[in-house]
Every structure is written in C-alpha cells, then in structure tokens.
Amino acid sequence: MMPQWIDVGAVEEVPLRGSRAIKVAGGEEIAVFRTGSGQIYALINRCPHKNGPLSQGIVHGDSVTCPLHSWVISLVTGEAQGTDKGCTPTIPVEVHSGRIMIERAAALRLAA
Amino acid sequence: MDREHLVVIGNGMAGCRAVEEVLARDPHRFRITIFGAEPHVNYNRIMLSPLLAGEKTFDEIVINDRSWYADHGIDLVVSDAVIAIDRDTQTVTAQSGRVAQYDRLLIATGSDPFIIPVPGKDLPGVVSFRDMADVDMMVHTAALGGDAVVIGGGLLGLEAAHGLALRGMQVTVVHLMDTLMERQLDEAAGWLLKAALEGRGQTILTGANTAEIFGEGKVEGVRLTDGRTIPASLVVMAAGIRPNVRLAKEAGLAVHRAILVDDQMVTSDPAILAVGECVEHRGQVYGLVAPIWEMCRALADGLIGKPNSYEGSVTATKLKVSGIDVFSAGDFVGGDGAEDIVLRDASRGVYKRVVVKDDRVVGAVLYGDTADGNWYFDLLKRSEDVTEIRDALIFGQAFASGGGQADPKAAVAALPDDAEVCGCNGVSKGQVAACIADGAGTLDAVRATCKASASCGSCTGLVETLLTISLGDEYAGERTAKPMCKCTSFTHDEVRALIVERGFRHMPQVMQELHWSTPDGCASCRPALNYYLLCAWPGEYVDDQQSRFVNERMHANIQKDGTYSVVPRMWGGLTNPKELRAIADVVEKYDAPMVKVTGGQRLDIFGIKKEDLPAVWADLNAAGMVSGHAYGKALRTVKTCVGSEWCRFGTQDSTGLGVKLERKFWGSWMPHKFKMAVSGCPRNCAEATIKDFGVICVDSGYELHVGGNGGIHLRGTDLLCKVATEEEAIHMAAAFVQLYREYARYLERTAPWIERMGMEWLRALLIDDVKGRDALAARFWIAQSFSQDDPWAERAAGQDRNLHRPMAEFRPITQLEGVAP
Ligand code: SRM
Ligand SMILES: Cc1cc2nc3c(=O)[nH]c(=O)nc-3n(C[C@H](O)[C@H](O)[C@H](O)COP(=O)(O)OP(=O)(O)OC[C@H]3O[C@@H](n4cnc5c(N)ncnc54)[C@H](O)[C@@H]3O)c2cc1C
Ligand code: SF4
Ligand code: FES
C-alpha cells in the first residue's frame, strides 16, 4: 500500500531552528523540527535518556540538545550523539508546496 | 514520402532545445510545427534578468531567429496558444481555431508564475516575472521612478529587485521565510546576502507575510499581516512557479505534481512526449535549465529510436546579481554522518560550506567567492572519493590539487617571508616567524606580541601552522585560554570585546566575522552570543528565542515530567490576600499537584502543562503579579528580613529597601542568575552574605557585600563598601550589576567571576573611578528601560502563542471505524 501522508501545517509555523509538537490521541507526541538550513524532521517527542520533551531543546545543525540533561540527539536518525547511547524513533516527513506531511502509519503506530 | 509530423506546444527553452537535438540527430525525420503563446521567436528566458537590469538587449538574448525556423522548414505559429488536445483524432486546436494533426506531440508548456491569492492581486501594476511581456511592463513602470515591492526573496525575486533598483526604483523585497533563497542557501549565507543587498539600498523584509495589495484602480502599496504598509507603484509577484499542466490534464494524461514522463520523456500516451518545467520525472520537478538540456538529449535519442535514459539531475544555482556571488549545489543539509567543512573569510566577505558524506561531496554553499563552485559541483556529480584532498578541499581546486601544495604545511612553508599573514594588522610571515623565534610559543603569545590573528582571527590556522613549522614538537598546539566552544578559536572574553569594538549586531554576523567553524553554532555558544549581543545593544538587538534554553523560552521551569513550575514575584518576600487567593485559585483551577514555599521567599506552583501556561499567567497578572524569573539568567529574588519596622534589633527598613531593589532590578538579563538580600542588622536573617549582592543594614547606613554564593561551592561575600543612604546603595548596586553584565562570561556567577578578577580590580572600577561608576550605573538604567516588560503579560496577550500550542492534533481514524455499525 502507498504510504499515506497527513498534512500537519505550513513550514513557517515551525520557527527556524525551532520545533513544534503534534499531539496524537492515544499515542505519543511528535516533535517537528526546522533546522537553520530549513530542513524539516520529525521525531517522537521523547528523549531516550529520561523522556525529556525534545521539542523544547535548542536546535543546532542537524541535532537537538535535550532540555533536561543536554543529551544531543540526531534529528536524522534519532540516535544520541557522542558517548550517550539511545535512540528516539523517527517519523517519515516530507514537504510539499510549503506544507509539512508526516507519514500516517508511523505517526499512529504507537497509538491505541 | 510523407514525413511524420511533430507538433510542439511551447516555443520556449525546452521545446526549441528538444527540436534542436532532434534536428542534430536526423534533420529530415520530421515535419515540425511549433505553437508559441508568446509573439516572439525562441529567446533565452534566464537572460530576462540581465535584460531587466539593462545589461542586455532583446536581440542579444534571442536563441533562434526567424531564419533558423525557415532554414529547417519549421512552421512557427506565434501568438496562438494551443487550447485543446484531442488524443483520439491526434489533433491540437489553437486559440485562433487553427487545427494541426500530429503523429508525435511534444508538450513543453513550462510553468506559470504562482500568484499568491491576496486581495488586490489583479490590480494594474501587479506583474509576474516570467516572460518578455512582464519585462516590458516593468521597464515601462520603472521609467517613472517610485517604489516597487517584490514579493518573494528567491532567485527570481532578487533578480527582479536588482534590475528594478538599477533602473532607479526604491525596492522592498517581502519574503515569507526568515532566510533569503532558503531553498538554496543556509542561514549564514542568506544573512550575508541580505546584508549585501541592504548595503545597496534595498529594503529586505524577511519573515514577512503579504496580507493584501491595495490601491484605487491601480497598485498603491502592499499591506503585511503585521499591519505594516509599504507604498508601491509596482508589485512583482515572484513567489514561485507552478508547472503548466492544464492541457495535459484535460487531455487525460497522467499528471501528478506535473506531467508524468518516463526516462525517454514519453507521457502515459506513447504518441505524446513532454519536456521542461512542466514534467515530473522520477518524482522530481525541475525549475532550472541544466536538467532540461539533459532531458532534451534523452528525448531526441528516444525519438529517433536510440533509447538513452534520462536518470534525473543534481542541480546547482547561481544568483545573477552583478557583484554578488552566490552558489549552491546539491544537498547542503547533509543529514546523518554528513560533515560540514566551513571556511569564513570576513575581510573578503567569504563564506564557504562544503558538505561531505561517506567521503564524497554532497553539497556546497558558497558566498562571496564562487570560483570553485563548478569544481565542487563536478566532484559532487561524479561522486568522487575526496579522502585524499579532504584537508585542503575547502581552500579550493588550486590549493587542493596543486600536487605538493596539497599539504597545507608545505604550502605555508613555501610562502615568501614578506607574504602577508594577518590582513587586519598587516603582519607578514617573516614578522610572525621572528616573533616565534623571540619566544612566543603559543597562539596567545603571538597575538599579544605581533598582533597576528588578534583581530578577526581568520589567519589563526596560518599562525598555528607557522608555530608547528617553527617549533615542531615543542608546539603543543593548545591555547592556554579556552575557546568558547568547538565552533570557534576565540575565548568568551575575546568574543565579547570584539562584539563591542567592531559593532557586531547580529548573530550570523558574529559567526561570519569571527570565522565560526559551524554554520549555525551549537547549544553552548548560541545562548552566550545571544546574551552578549543583548547586553551590548540594549533596545536594539532582537532577542533570539531559538537561542534560549527552554526555561527562558517558556518563562517557566521545566520539570522532569515535561510539565512546568510557575513562580510569580513576591516583591521582597511580601505578599497579600489578593495574591494568595489568586495563587490558591490557580492551584485548584489547573490541578497543580503541589504548591511550595521556596528558599527564595515566595511560592512555587508545580506541574502546570505547557498549554496552560498562558492562561495561568493571565490569571496571576490579573491579581497584579508578574514573572518571578525563577528560570532566568536574571534577577531571581531579593530576600529581606522584617527590619526596623518590626524587629527590635532592626536598624533600617530592610524590607522596604529589598522591595525597592527588586522593583528596580527585575527583568535584567545577566550572565547567570543573580540573587540579592537585605538584612536589617548584622544578625543577617536574610542571609545577605551568601548572595550575589547583599546589603547589611547598620546604624550608620548600609554595608554592601558582593560575590556570595550558597550553591555548590559555598562562598561568603566580600565587603565592597559602606554607604550612608538607600539611594547610594541602589546606585552602587546598579554599577556593580552592570560591571558583572559587561565583564563576566556567560554562565559565570558573581562568585567565580570575582575570584577571577579580584576585589582590587572591582574596587578600582567601582570605588576609585567615580565617573566610571556613574557611567556603569547609567548604562544599566538604559538597559533596564527596555527590559522591564513582563514576559508573562506578553505571552498571556497572545505573543508567541504557538510555543504553547501543539501545531496539530489528530486522532487515528481506526478508533472511529470501531464504532461503525
Ligand atoms: C524552588 C527552589 C527550591 C525550593 O523549593 O526552595 C529552587 C529550585 C531550583 N534550583 Fe535552586 N532553588 C531555590 C533556591 C536556591 C537557593 C537558596 C536561595 O536562593 O536563597 C540556592 C543557593 C543560593 C545560591 O544560589 O547561591 C539555590 C542554588 C541552586 C543552584 C546552585 C547555584 C550555584 O551557583 O552553585 C542551582 C543550579 C544552577 O543554577 O545551575 C539551582 C537550580 C535550581 C533549579 C532551577 C534546577 C533546575 O535547573 O531545574 C530548581 C528549579 C525547580 C523548579 O522547577 O522550580 N539552585 N537554589 C528555590 C527557588 C528560589 C526562588 O524563589 O526563586
Ligand atoms: C527571469 C528568469 C531567470 C531565470 N534564471 C535562471 C538561471 O539563472 N538558471 C537557470 O537554470 N534557470 C533560470 N530560469 C528558469 C528557466 O528559464 C526555466 O527553467 C526554463 O525557461 C524552462 O523552460 P521551459 O521550456 O520548460 O519553459 P519556458 O521557457 O517558460 O517555455 C514555455 C513556453 O511555452 C509557452 N506556452 C505555454 N502554454 C502554451 C500553450 N498552451 N500554447 C502555446 N505555447 C504555450 C509559453 O508562453 C513559453 O513561451 C529563470 C527563469 C526566469 C523567468
Ligand atoms: S536542591 Fe537540587 S533537587 Fe532541590 S530544588 Fe535545588 S536543584 Fe532541585
Ligand atoms: S531526558 Fe534528555 S537528556 Fe535527560
């Protein structure tokens, strides 16, 4: 089956070098990031360390620094960087005509 | 014999190039008819920019003149757009009623400009930038002078703005995104471009959204969604393009974002081909000519029966604005495993960023010096392994492929003695070598003695190489002073000083001028730079939310479960029934699981959800309370004791002074958190001697103490001085705080700062130098005049409301399906 995409909003609704959260009923929050280069990424909004809300971190390069204990998480793979070990699930995301689309199945996988 | 009839719709770049390619392979195979909507022969569309700029004439941009069509027996039909394709009869019908039968049909209709759907978009004076007619209209309007607004800060928009500015118009570019040409440039390059265009007199508004174009009968101006209006007699819509697919769609061809074609540019109907901007190939739609040329080759090969696949293109972009060199190719985002190599040369205004992944160049952004653009693009397209030349890659082709020169050390050793190493301070290689020979064995020592690399730092690498060459193993390569972070070789103190001395006013500017080695800094330098700029340019620098730690961005303290705690100010530890009632109400209304008296003499409400914060603040504001900055690198609390008003030992009104201090000092951003206390007598019930600034009241006045810390490393205060009045105490506090704000490193509290600077230094500046002290205090009050806005009130009133709201919310449909009958 072709993947289904859900439109979650316009690119400029996410601040440059910032993030916005998306709530999923019965599932886990998703964090959508926009980097300084303008690239859009999406991850589950949960740090592999102690569940810090990654959407509240500082975005730099292709990474986000978790607001709770400063782990650095790759926005591309969800992997913790450096010596820290752990991984946050990534959500497939695409941009079409300035709209951010996330993949439905991945977004809802963790929902009831 | 009757030749096959090839009919082409679109007399543009792709259509004519395809015909040229076919003719080159077999000049006699087809009888050819080309329909063009425009009245012209085939011209070079990309040269419309130099045409607008007055650098070219129309004759100079014609690709094929009438004789070319005649010589090849091509029937050119101009000013007659095709309005329908009938696939059953294999005919096309043009506007004039003319019908042509085809054996093969080629659709090359290009794109239409995207007209943003705002009121006034159809007013006379609104124009797009796509064809000769648009340029004629712009040239005509520009001749009358006046103001122009260009909507869209991409390639097209900026070229239009440039042309109109050269024709004497006052130009404003309105761009929705924060970065110009954001598809091609990163923030650093986009910022340089913006600064350069502003330097030429254009007004560039980024993050600006057009609400309407207004005017009576013709354009008079543009109104933005934030209410600003810009006068204009000409509005250029350059907000993007849309593939022109109407004919194909109506004829029932497969169309997605554009007309779907295979690797020979054949559509879903084998008799019909399509090429150019109107096609989608392997999921890609292109808006540049280079891919179109490749498509045309594959198309012609296919048409004459020699299939040769088009496999898609990587693209590179250059901005055609004379005097400004911008180049971008491939994927500069890079992603995981990708590594950025950044070179900045501030004196030449150069920013280069090459992205390497798996030992291959995957992208490049060049600003100011684009000479090596094609070389990087070539490495990228050929996917060449660059391991061998990696170290020298960023310096360009001449350096990297210069044989012996590939070793940067050898290259530096080969420089003549009079070669200039440091451009800012005019220091030659010979002078640096002499200075090292005289005993300067570290970078800091070289900077201190001969000043090389002491200004902009771009020659730091060169100087370090010279140190290695001269000292060999003796040169440890390490600086005694620690750089701010891995993005720079400068220390905190150097960066601060340079921001003020050189007048840097924006973060990308600091990064460019001081040669940051990353495109946009890291989580450690960004908050520091944001603070330094804020401190240096009060009222002028616009705070960067994305460079703030979460607590300062959310104006509350994040908790381990992701909720927030909220601490309203209780001035000097005083409160009243109204405040207490409001707090009690908030606790109940928002289900706060805990409310606690803090060690700072106020109440902390725990467990508030991010979404509820603005409402909580609105409720607290209504009772007159403002943010307590319990989260900020800012004034926290001013602890007080009851003092002379109640206490039998009290010598002065310590409570009153504490309240005054808190009211005057709240809101100021500092290098770290800052605490004050006022005790009414030396019994010191407010613990003033472990505060950043503590006051102990005595009979004859006020003892002022500084540099105390009750945290990880307990430190008692040092006595700064004794003053007689409250006014003097407040004045001294202002001077002290400003000194701390201007000299401490980011995240350095007063205690370690004073240990580092020494009390002697402090006293010399605050006690002995009376003028200097007054000046410090004056600067503090100026800064305060801009910082005492309650952040909670702003948020409760709706500012940055997005930070508190999820961007979207959705529910799985499957849940609903379960309910279906
Ligand atoms: C709430 C409070 C504890 C309490 O329940 O009493 C508190 C709570 C926190 N303190 Fe504190 N400190 C509180 C008074 C103190 C005091 C006592 C005082 O101010 O008189 C101290 C020692 C005095 C001092 O700062 O010199 C204190 C020394 C620290 C330190 C160590 C600072 C240092 O220089 O060594 C930290 C860590 C830091 O700031 O980096 C810290 C950090 C924190 C943080 C912000 C930890 C964090 O980053 O999340 C805690 C936030 C909890 C929250 O969500 O609200 N807190 N903290 C007190 C709030 C005071 C207020 O009303 O604003
Ligand atoms: C100002 C400007 C500057 C540019 N600069 C660059 C640059 O620097 N580098 C670069 O690579 N690219 C640049 N481009 C983009 C480049 O010009 C296009 O990618 C290229 O022209 C696309 O070719 P095309 O044949 O698909 O479309 P076009 O060149 O637009 O040709 C399509 C033609 O079809 C005609 N047509 C449409 N519908 C019909 C119909 N129904 N019947 C008959 N005729 C029809 C149109 O009138 C048009 O003449 C620039 C574009 C512009 C406008
Ligand atoms: S003492 Fe430690 S645990 Fe307690 S509030 Fe302060 S920082 Fe948190
Ligand atoms: S929860 Fe993210 S670093 Fe600890």
Automatic annotation (TrEMBL), chain A:
Classification via InterPro entries: Rieske-like_NirD, Rieske_2Fe-2S, Rieske_2Fe-2S_sf
Q: Which UniProt keywords apply?
A: 2Fe-2S, Iron, Iron-sulfur, Metal-binding, Nitrate assimilation, Oxidoreductase
State whether keyword Mitochondrion applies.
no
PROSITE patterns from the entry? RIESKE
Instruction: Kindly give the PANTHER family that the UniProt entry links to this protein.
Output: 3-PHENYLPROPIONATE_CINNAMIC ACID DIOXYGENASE FERREDOXIN SUBUNIT (PTHR21496:SF23), FERREDOXIN-RELATED (PTHR21496)
Q: What residue stretches are annotated with the Rieske domain?
A: 5-102
Task: Write the protein's name.
Answer: Assimilatory nitrite reductase (NAD(P)H) small subunit
Q: Which organism is it from?
A: Blastomonas natatoria
> Biological process GO annotation list?
nitrate assimilation
Give an example GO molecular function.
nitrite reductase [NAD(P)H] activity
Keyword Metal-binding on this protein?
yes
Kindly give the CDD domains that the UniProt entry links to this protein.
Rieske_NirD_small_Bacillus (cd03530)
Q: What is the lineage of its organism?
A: Bacteria, Pseudomonadati, Pseudomonadota, Alphaproteobacteria, Sphingomonadales
From TrEMBL, chain B:
> In this protein, which residues make up the domain named NADH-rubredoxin oxidoreductase C-terminal?
316-382
An individual GO BP term: nitrate assimilation
Keyword Iron in annotation = yes
Pathway in which this enzyme or protein is active: Nitrogen metabolism; nitrate reduction (assimilation)
Domain of life here? Answer: Bacteria
Cofactor-binding details, from the entry: Binds 1 [4Fe-4S] cluster per subunit. Binds 1 siroheme per subunit.
Tell me the ranges covered by the Nitrite/Sulfite reductase ferredoxin-like domain, including all copies: 559-623
Q: Where is the Nitrite/sulphite reductase 4Fe-4S domain?
A: 632-768
Residue limits of the FAD/NAD(P)-binding domain?
5-281
In which family does this protein belong, per the annotation? Belongs to the nitrite and sulfite reductase 4Fe-4S domain family.
Q: Which NCBIfam families match?
A: nitri_red_nirB
| Stated name of the protein | Assimilatory nitrite reductase (NAD(P)H) large subunit
Q: Which organism's genome codes for this protein?
A: Blastomonas natatoria
